[in-house]
Write a structure and sequence with these properties.
Non-ribosomal Peptide Synthetase Peptidyl Carrier Protein, Chain A; mainly alpha; single chain; 4 helices; ACP-like_sf; Acyl carrier protein
Length: 76
């Protein structure tokens, strides 16, 4: 389950309604989640969680669920 903070980040970066954010949403599955939006998403996650994602994690972040797993790795 995706936390509300991350849902808001995804909705803002992708310009979609929070109700559309789910574990099933994946990179490229909607036109709004393109490479430009992906980088906006990364920037917003880094800002909101005060972390710096490495390149492999940025590439690997293919869904909100995966993003939550990646963020958790930085919060340990």
């Amino acid at each position: 389950m995706i936390d509300n903070k991350l849902k808001t980040i995804f909705a803002t970066a992708l310009g979609i309604d929070e109700a559309a954010i789910s574990d099933e949403l994946t990179y490229g599955s909607i036109p709004e989640w393109d490479s430009t939006a992906h980088m906006m998403l990364v920037a917003e996650i880094e800002s909101q969680y005060d972390i710096m994602l490495d390149t492999d994690d940025i590439i690997d972040m293919s869904s909100p669920a995966k993003a939550q797993t990646i963020i958790a790795k930085y919060q340990d």
